[in-house]
Amino acid sequence: MQVSQIPEPERFRSQDYLNVLDDVPAVERCRVTAAAMQSMHASAARHYPLEACGLLLGKLNATGWDIDEAREVENLNTERAADRFILDPQAYQAVDRELAGSGREIIGIWHSHPDCPAKPSPTDLSAAWDGFAYIIVSTCQGIAADTRCWALNDSGERFAAVPIEASLADKQAQESTAGARP
Ligand SMILES: [Zn+2]
To answer: Is the pLDDT of residue 2 over 70?
Structure first.
């Protein structure tokens, strides 16, 4: 679905917010399965106008992040649930234990920005970890309107935009469907 315009509160144009973003995009890619993307969008929409958050599961390799699952985790911030999230650390540890030895791991975090652009805030920057993918879903009028991925740049001082691509498995499935047409 399309939303004609995502609101951009004044603070997103302030120097504090502009300083969060690197002009140079990341060389890595964030490949997301359609299932993971749909699950994130559904959670984000369901919690609108509050923030939803969760974990990104999959594999990290030299070319970027391969995300095959987005798992919703409770936002513990009930006081400012509209613009802040605190991911439940116990849920994090439980998922971390569950994945131990599976070859898959927690490789990022997603959260929603109700009625705000899918751009990270200074708060998001202060909480960011090196090597993690950060997906932000902008929710607007109750639907997921824009989805972007970010990761700390080499200096670790700003977020670089990471292009989001379909997962290899989804691309292959699409190609085989297209090839089967007469
Ligand atoms: Zn945020």
So the answer is: no
53 C-alpha vs ligand 1 centroid, how far in Å?
Answer: 9
Q: Which of 124, 158, 149, 146 is nearest to 5 (CA)?
A: 146
Q: Tell me: the pLDDT tens digits for 27-48?
A: 999 999 999 999 999 999 999 9
Ligand 1 center from residue 165 Cα (angstroms)? 21
- For tokens 């409770």, what's the residue? 74
Which stretches of the chain are assigned E, i.e. beta strand?
Answer: 29-32, 53-61, 64-73, 105-114, 133-140, 143-152, 159-162, 164-166
Q: Which domains does the chain have, with CATH numbers?
A: 15-175 (3.40.140.10)
Of all helices (H) and strands (E), which one includes residue 26? none
Q: 67 C-alpha to center of ligand 1: Å?
A: 19
Question: What are 96-128's pLDDT values in tens digits?
Answer: 999 999 999 999 999 999 999 999 999 999 999
**How far is the centre of ligand 1, averaged over its atoms, from the C-alpha of 119 (Å)?**
7
pTM greater than the 0.85 cutoff: yes
Closest CA to 120 of 145, 84, 89: 84
Give the separation between CA 100 and CA 139, rounded to whole angstroms: 33
